[in-house]
Amino acid sequence: MRRHSLCLHRLVLSICLLVILPGTVSPGHAAAGDPPIFDMGAPFHPVISRHGMVVSQEQLASDIGSDILRRGGNAIDAAVATGFALAVTLPQAGNLGGGGFMLVYLADENRTIALDYREMAPAAAHRKLFEDAQGGVDTDRARFSLQSSGVPGTVAGLVHALENYGSMSLKQVLKPAIKLATRGFEVTDTLSMALAWRGEQLLEDPVSATYFFQPDGAPLRVGQIWRQRDLAWSLKQIARHGARAFYRGAIAEKLVSTMEGGGGLITLEDLENYRVIERKPVYGDYRGYRIASMPPPSSGGIHLIQMLNMLETLELGDMDHNSAAYIHQLTETMRRAYADRSEYLGDPDFASVPEAKLLDKAYAARLAFSIDADVATPSADVRPGRYLPAESPQTTHFSVWDSEGNVVSNTYTLNFSFGNGKSVAGAGFLLNNEMDDFSAKPGVPNAYGLLGSDANAIAPGKRPLSSMTPTIMFKDGAPVLATGSPGGSTIITVVLQAIVNVVDFEMNIAEATSVPRFHHQWWPDVLILEPGISADTRRLLVEMGHGVSASPRLLGKLQSIEQRNGVLFGSSDPRWPGDAVAPVQ
Ligand code: GLY
Predict the structure, then answer these.
(1) Of the candidates 320, 337, 329, which has an alpha carbon nearest to the alpha carbon of residue 371?
(2) Tally of domains in the chain
(3) pLDDT value at position 384?
């Protein structure tokens, strides 16, 4: 591979590091005389620890997880504590009112489990739920009404993970989140700005207005101490009564009363019927690495592996990273995988998903063969579709690794930033608008511009198709990378590029996270480039026939941990303010 000698050099440097490093280093001062680690992928430096690590999108939550590890908790204890803490500190995506997916690797059993705690359509939902009188789709109702909420899965998912794979009590892991909600924490610029950005929707709901805004309608002030009394009450209920509090008890009653007051569909029976599902991860092999990722109802794992299978037919490492030729090859790969997504993917308990065929390497080779190395294939020649929305997605990922080698890779969400903007009165948390991830009508795109088929039509009890891609990569039977990202439909291509950067270009995880990315999802037929991809490259791509988006856009926020020679390297995506890596010292 082109960068082979450079990488050998880096490997030698990292071995030096193992000898030199006592415990943890937070790199950043590359003065003469520093250990050679600081040359590793410079100027991109991961945070390092030998003893465990939590990487999330918010520092207080990462610190809480890391403290649990320090006190002897395992990766699952730390993940659950981090998940509940993010519900307090990152209200735009951390949640009690949403859902998600968790991959758990248990080192002593050498086993990976995929936990599906995705939201579920209420019993009253039906195929034409969001159709309007003219037969179109009422996108406002699908995205910003109480009907847009699926039955939340987060509380059941986190409690299930803890009870089955953790070592601490629910009270122990909830205590830090309860303390944060009760005593409060300082509002950051990022939080205040996020609230201002979504103010229009949030202020429409009087309950959200009191939770997240000042009496004059301004967002929480930067630097003020934000206490969340109602959310603290909910967390205490869960600590005392377990998941029952949310699905049958006092929280359930408040949630249903909010639904009844505003035309929502979720009933007490829907909440009682909610179940976490343990699924078998989807597996793939890529250049000697084994990839474990999320199966349906996420499309993430299948299409990540399908794209890797296609890319394995190429010598990517011989190409210049992010050159026009390279971006072209990956774009054509993405286009073909997302076309399949629109047709075949849905909740496997309701639709038959041809998983084995989609993951077949021979099928991937045929798709790869259809790529012209010099000319873009118009998406209309692959399958027809519609155009892209401007909505900015918000989901959040965290990765946790403990000193025993247990690993958690978790992505959860309210769908949009702050979900549908509606809060449960008295319970302190926002509701998801995950019902918009269903295909409301064939041929009509959802908020991410994604099209779907019958496989993803709305039905009672069904889980909407997701793109969340929590992933763990293995080498010689041991985990070497945990990664994942928010970003709606872009999640799968963001995770793909993280893996290709690490495997084919042998970048350290900080470099693999930081370098510019790009995205194509078949329909709309638009190639999105991040800032940092040159005007020359853009011009060459246009000449090849790509419809390059006029405005560059940031894609995803990876939260990853890499393991090399027993040392953990963490990277929190610099596309988001703050560094939320919390190493155990
Ligand atoms: N709500 C975004 C996703 O699940 O893909």
Answers:
(1) 329
(2) 2
(3) 25
Residues 12 and 136 in one domain: no
Q: Quick one: 386 and 532 in the same domain?
A: yes
Do 100 and 175 reside in the same domain of the chain? Answer: yes
In this structure, which residue's CA is closest to atom 3 in ligand 1? 466
Q: What CATH number does residue 284 fall under? A: 1.10.246.130
Counting atoms of ligand 1 from 1, which one is nearest the CA of 489?
5
Sign of the dihedral defined by the CA atoms of residues 118, 137, 335, 364, in that order:
positive
395 labelled catalytic? yes
Structure tokens at 242: 């377990």
Give residue 383's pLDDT.
53
Q: How far is Cα of residue 191 from the mean position of the Cα atoms in its chain?
A: 19
Same domain, 261 and 296: no
Residues 385, 257 share a domain: no
- CA 335, 364, 285, 80 torsion: positive or negative? positive
Residue nearest (by alpha carbon) to ligand 1 atom 1 = 415
Q: How confident is the model at residue 16 (pLDDT cuts 50, 70, 90)?
A: very low
Whether ligand 1 lies within 6 angstroms of the CB of 433 is answered as no
What is Dmax (Cα atoms) for the chain?
72
Q: Are residues 143 and 286 in the same domain?
A: no
Q: Report the nearest atom of ligand 1 relative to the CA of 299.
A: 5
User: Could you tell me if the CB of 490 is within 6 A of ligand 1?
Assistant: no
Does 119 contact ligand 1 (Cβ within 6 A)? Answer: no
Q: How far apart are CA 475 and CA 361, in angstroms?
A: 19
Over residues 46-74, the pLDDT tens digits come to 999 999 999 999 999 999 999 999 999 99
Inside any domain, residue 299: yes
Taking the centre of ligand 1 as the mean of its atom positions, its distance from the CA of residue 225, in whole angstroms, is 31
Indicate if 153 and 17 belong to the same structural domain: no
Contact 401, 53 (CB under 8 A): yes
| C-alpha 294 – ligand 1 centre gap (Å) | 13
Same-domain status, 287 and 375: yes
Q: Is the pTM of this model over 0.85?
A: yes
In a domain, 217, yes or no: yes
The whole domain housing 533 covers: 6-45+280-394+467-583
- Which carries the bigger pLDDT value, residue 534 or residue 41? 534
